[in-house]
């Protein structure tokens, strides 16, 4: 092969190499642009998602995590539920309500007693969903608790309780509790062995129920 042939061959190889480099550079730039676009979209979405209470002009606890929202410490069991909500309550003194984020869901903590009254009494039909989840198959006892029921099941339980927990009957509740106290104190003073907490609580509950509901003077001890 002569000099001209080698020159043509080298030129073809150089052209192919240039094409490959240009294609690789184009792919690299395209990938970078796609990543930049996705990151920008994710950032804008997160700003919009965790800016809900800011748009509503509601004082709120800012989100500290994209996954957990404001409840990171609570979800990781670093603090108790009571301490977590008390911290939010104390941090916004004078505010009627405070917003926070349960994961990506905006939630509201009420501080004003009048608003609490409206939610729990006057407009409770619109606020009966409490956010608690109970597996009905695994916990057949707790899922009947009216404090965790929602929808139709809550309305049925509420109608039964309102017939029983009338104002006149509730007036006698403190008296029923006070009648059990002397027997309970005597039982504790005379018992030297360890006390079974479950049995102790059952005795108190049965004594209160018998005295308050049917007028039976039975302390349960």
Instruction: Give the topology string: H per helix, E per strand.
Output: HHHHEEHHHHH
Tell me the overall shape. Answer: elongated
Q: What's the structural domain tally?
A: 4
Number of helices: 9
Number of strands: 2
Query: What is the spatial order of strands in the main beta sheet?
Result: 1-2
Percent of sequence in beta strands: 5-15%
Backbone CA Rg: 33 Å
How many angstroms does the end-to-end distance come to? Answer: 114 Å
Mind describing the biggest β-sheet? 2 strands, antiparallel
Class derived from helix and strand content: mainly alpha
- Low-pLDDT parts are 1-17
* Helicity range: 55-70%
Calculate the mean pLDDT score and round it: 76
Keywords: Endoplasmic reticulum, Heme, Iron, Membrane, Metal-binding, Microsome, Monooxygenase, Oxidoreductase, Transmembrane, Transmembrane helix
Subcellular location: Endoplasmic reticulum membrane; Microsome membrane
InterPro entries: Cyt_P450, Cyt_P450_sf, Insect_CytP450_Detox
Transmembrane segments: 35-53
What is the secondary structure topology, with strand pairs?
Blueprint: H1 3-49, H2 52-55, H3 72-75, H4 81-91, E1 97-102, E2 105-110, H5 113-122, H6 151-164, H7 167-171, H8 173-190, H9 197-213
Antiparallel strand pairs: 1-2
Q: What's this entry about, in short?
A:
By secondary structure, the protein is mostly helical.
